[in-house]
Amino acid sequence: VDDRARLRAALDECLESEGDEPVVCAYRMDYEGRRCWYQSTLLRVSESGVLCCSKDVTARMSSEDRERSW
Question: pTM here?
Answer without folding.
Answer: 0.78
